[in-house]
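Researcher: Re-running this chain for the archive, since the previous output was lost when a drive failed. Same request as before.
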Amino acid sequence: MSQDLLASLEYIEKEKGITKEVLLDALRHALLSACRKTSPEKAEAFDVQIDPQTFKITMLLDGKEINDPRFGRIAAQTAKQVIIQKIREAERESIFNEYSHKQGDIVSGSVHRIEAKAIIVDFGKTEGILPAREQSPLDSFRQGNIVRAYVSEVKKTSKGPEVILSRTHPDLVAQFFAMEVPEIHDGLVKIKAVAREAGSRTKIAVASTDEKIDCVGSCVGVRGQRVKNIVRELGGEKIDIIRYSDDVETYIKNAMAPAELKSIKLDPERQNAEILVEDDQLSLAIGKKGQNVRLASKLIGWELDVRSAAQMTPLSALDGVGEKTEELLKAAGIQGVKDLLKKTAQELSEIPGIGPKTAEKIIASAQKAVSRKEAKESSEPAEKIEKEVPEKKATSSEEEGA
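Model: Regenerated structure tokens:
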């Protein structure tokens, strides 16, 4: 048995990277456990020794060697089980280590099977799980299709390593750009931030470390080919490439494109920006279902409050709001009618210096002001209300100049 065991140990050490010492220690403990189960009443009296040179296995009872035919059979069976177990553990550990290093990267595999709540992706050595919540609404895979996905997490489980994939993670887009744009890979262009609503639109902010390099043009590519490849990979998801700026006001203007902004009032302490646009730019600035301003806000990390000129009613224009009351409201963080309407009369009356009657009067006045504006806007010609500047892709001008 020693020669067979030696050959097995040498093979495992060479092919699986498990040292003989680890295997022998595991084998010794397994044999001890097996022997103690055969004679529970003498459990503590048993001991097993394995010579590290000859691999001879000796069973001791009360310190004396015993020769029991059963021990040979137990030893052979236990050695086989331990070796199989250690091989399995080594393979799992190897896979876990390999994919742990790939966390945050993109991996490719083929669709093995499609389940109700996940797609199982085959990588050869192991499988990845692409949960339904991590699939883009634009994704449509069939068995055998190649999938490129972002490794969001690698977990150890009793069944082996579990590789969790994502097709909705913002960094998936960033990684695609790094793969597609050599300037990003070489560090000449940096990705500063990504804001994404998977299946719909992504805004990605880039900056150049070399003034001679056009960061946006590099990402777009000649005739838009680079960004088109990424859009195709994402199933047609729209991508706005934004030029990053250390100047917050400039950054906001870039992020809010294609809308034209009239003015921006910054509050660095609260990281809030009040944006004023012309009436015909409001729908463009806000975007469909608020998407444009929402993504711009995520990209910059600031709260963006977009209003049109017609919506800007000063607090002082409301009944019950004099100079002193306006100061009290602003000190409480109420900067305009929009903030005011988030409050109830009771909450307003809790501000020192504002009584219950005054609070009710101010709220009522604010509601009337908003109603008047809505009525005025609804009475305008339909073509003016529905007028919307055609959306200009962030990449179009760059494509023309490429």
